[in-house]
């Protein structure tokens, strides 16, 4: 694990994000507490609809209607509580202090402008004095990612492949030297070789620039290649969090165990891989009481129907499951090793 005193820490406390629906305001993220240690890469995994992207957007205070941040705080060292910022202060924080790579890179690029013009627009909007230096840095970043920087800056988004657009997104997120970087599904819809390349680039740039990085993904295997810590989300809650080798090696929450069992295997006993039963909840089907995972859980108990489990903290790891409250620490199992 890499830690660096120049990288900022991020502390998310009691974060709740709700969306207005015909049935009233329903929580997409509910009471999340999560700490990103300075200089580390934290992965957040979970199925679609678990609240991962909504949590990530909260780091920019960018949840859009019909959603709203109902309560909580997002403290970033050197910036303060992002959720209290507004207007010009918030605009300047986005890009300067917090860089964001969106899930579909092409959706964050202007199809009518070249990449270079969009880079210059970004620099001007943040009062960058030396735009030539900004372009030089962008070309260097693109070259490090295996691309011809001058050609890419002269191109429009439709002239670039999906992998190239993803790398352009990473470049734009880093162009203003942000120290907190959020990547939302950075390898989705990319081939395996391109995925591996982008993950390697993320790790290298993270270490070189002393960043604090958050990677949102549904792919446990992919994030295991680069992350230091892993948070597992389900039904808008963080159900497990800790050092990634420990979480994957000895998962404490039944949902984490299910996600790991579902990873396809290329060797060993392939029968060990099996899909999670049932479907993840939607905003409209989230239970109002009890454990959000109980309908799909193979260790459910009577208390799971009525009481939400509290987070059990053991040796720097947390997991929210009633079965853990009176059980010994999880043991590393052979199939997870």
TrEMBL record:
Keywords for this protein: ATP-binding, Cell membrane, Membrane, Nucleotide-binding, Transport
First-listed, main subcellular location of the protein, grouped into a coarse class: membrane
Topology of the protein relative to the lipid bilayer: Peripheral membrane protein
Domain ABC transporter positions: 10-260
One BP term from GO: peptide transport
Matches recorded under InterPro entries: AAA+_ATPase (IPR003593), ABC_Ni/Peptide_Import (IPR050388), ABC_transporter-like_ATP-bd (IPR003439), Oligopep_ABC_C (IPR013563), P-loop_NTPase (IPR027417)
SUPFAM superfamilies: P-loop containing nucleoside triphosphate hydrolases
GO molecular function: ATP binding; ATP hydrolysis activity
GO cellular component, one term: plasma membrane
Cell compartments where the protein resides: Cell membrane
Gene3D superfamilies: P-loop containing nucleotide triphosphate hydrolases
PANTHER family for this protein: DIPEPTIDE TRANSPORT ATP-BINDING PROTEIN DPPD (PTHR43297:SF2), OLIGOPEPTIDE TRANSPORT ATP-BINDING PROTEIN APPD (PTHR43297)
Family of the protein in this entry: Belongs to the ABC transporter superfamily.
Protein name as catalogued: Oligopeptide/dipeptide ABC transporter ATP-binding protein
